[in-house]
Amino acid sequence: MTDPLYRKDPYLREAPATVVAHAEGGVELSAPLFYPRGGGQPGDTGRLVWAGGETIVADTVKGEAGAALLLAPEGATLPPVGTEVVQHLDWDRRHGHMRVHTALHLLSVVIPLPVSGGAIGADKGRLDFDMPEAPEDREALEAALNALIARDLPVGEEWITEAELDADPGLVKTMSVAPPRGTGRVRLVRIGTAEDRVDLQPCGGTHVARTGEIGPVRLGKIEKKGRQNRRVTVLLDA
C-alpha cells in the first residue's frame, strides 16, 4: 500500500486527489493529505474544492482498513465518487500539532517513565506518566526539554517488522496506545542521528523535520491523576 501524503510529506499544504468512496458523511480520497485522528493527535481540518463546488473538512478519522475519511459538516454537499478535488489543509493547525507532538516525544526522554495517556493540541499537549511521586525540580525538567529542542536535532523515520517490534518491546513507551499494526511493518520516529540517537519509538503521527522548529516551550501544571499517575502539560511559547 502506498504511503498517504501526510506521511510522505507532512509539510504539503494542498494536493489533488480523486474521490474513491463515500462513508459515514465523508469521503475517502485516492491520495489523502489529511491526517486521520489517532494516537492522541487530532484529525486534520481544511477544505475540499472541485469544479462547481467546495466543502469544509470538519474532521478526519480512520475509516475501513485505516483509510483516512474526511468528514464534512452535516448536510454539506459531497463531491461524487470519481470527482477530481484539490485538498486545502488548515496548515497553521497541523503545524501546531507537529510541533507539539515532537515536543511530547522529547518530554518522554526527559521523563523516562512509562506513558499511560496523552493528547495533542495546536498550542499545547500533555502526557500522563506512571509517576507515583511528582518530580522534585520542575524547572530542571523544563530546562532539559528546551535544551534538547535547541540542539535542532533531525527528526526522521525507520521501519521495522512487527516481529522485530515484538522482539524489542522496550521501544513502546505508551501503555494506553498500541503501535499501528496490520501491514506487517511498524513505523518508528527517530530523533537524532543513527550515531547520536535521542529517541526512537513507534508512532504514526506527523512531526517537524528538526527539533529547533518546535521553539521554546513551557511546562504547565503537573497534576495528580490517580494513585500512580501524573499529568505533565507542555505549552508552546510562540
TrEMBL record:
Top-level lineage group: Bacteria
Start and end residues of each Alanyl-transfer RNA synthetases family profile domain: 1-238
Pfam families the UniProt entry points to: tRNA_SAD
Keywords, sorted A to Z: Hydrolase, Metal-binding, Zinc
SMART domains linked to this entry: tRNA_SAD
Cofactor: Zn(2+)
Subcellular location: Cytoplasm
One GO BP: alanyl-tRNA aminoacylation
Chief site of localization: cytoplasm
Protein name: Ala-tRNA(Pro) hydrolase
Source organism: Rhodovulum kholense
Lineage, highest ranks first: Bacteria, Pseudomonadati, Pseudomonadota, Alphaproteobacteria, Rhodobacterales
